[in-house]
């Protein structure tokens, strides 16, 4: 298995694991609106990540290569929908904005974690 596949599998799994861990921690240790922010933010970003993966996988698989305009259009539709959902959540005072920010950082945290683990593997392999 090459590095790209390993990273993708790790990031996809760790998104859900981090979302679950942060959500449970938020539910136990923070006010309800902050915990809701974490949960909704994590769900928004994790679902967007999976939809982007599916779009790119279908678009770049030969022999049915899609136009880059279709990929960009789908991206912007997801972006606008996410922005609208975030606007409704914040303006309706359903979530705490800081909790939402923490939830939206789930994918970034899993990508950072995956990168650090791969760098560790790379440097340990060179050291031996």
Task: Summarize the helices and strands and which ones pair or pack.
Blueprint lengths: L2 H27 L2 H28 L8 H24 L5 H8 L1 H22 L1
Overall SS class: mainly alpha
Largest sheet: none
Rg over C-alpha atoms, rounded to the nearest angstrom? 17 Å
Q: Structurally, how many domains make up the residues?
A: 1
Percent of residues in helical segments? over 70%
Globally, the shape reads flat
Whole-number average pLDDT? 92
Oligomer: single chain
Query: Could you tell me the strand content as a percent range?
Result: under 5%
For the record, give the distance between the C-alpha atoms at the N and C termini, rounded to a whole number.
21 Å
What is the number of E strands? 0
**SSE string:** HHHHH
Q: Work out the helix count.
A: 5
Which stretches of 5+ consecutive residues score pLDDT under 50?
A: none
Features:
about 130 residues, mainly alpha, about 85% helix, about 0% strand, flat
Q: How is this structure best described in words?
A:
By secondary structure, this protein is mainly α. It has one domain (3-127). Helices cover 85% and strands 0% of the residues. The chain is built from 5 helices and no strands. It has helices at residues 3-29, 32-59, 68-91, 97-104, 106-127. The mean pLDDT is 92.
Summarize the structure.
With 128 residues, this protein is mainly α.
């Amino acid at each position: 298995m090459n590095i790209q596949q390993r990273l993708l599998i790790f990031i996809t799994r760790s998104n859900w694991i981090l979302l679950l861990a942060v959500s449970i921690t938020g539910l136990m240790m923070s006010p309800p609106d902050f915990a809701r922010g974490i949960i909704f933010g994590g769900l928004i970003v994790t679902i967007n990540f999976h939809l982007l993966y599916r779009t790119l996988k279908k678009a770049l698989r030969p022999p049915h290569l899609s136009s880059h305009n279709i990929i960009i259009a789908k991206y912007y539709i997801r972006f606008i929908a996410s922005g609208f959902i975030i606007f409704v959540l914040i303006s309706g005072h359903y979530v705490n904005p800081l909790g939402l920010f923490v939830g939206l950082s789930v994918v970034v945290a899993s990508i950072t974690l995956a990168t650090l683990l791969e760098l560790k593997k790379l440097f340990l392999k060179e050291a031996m």
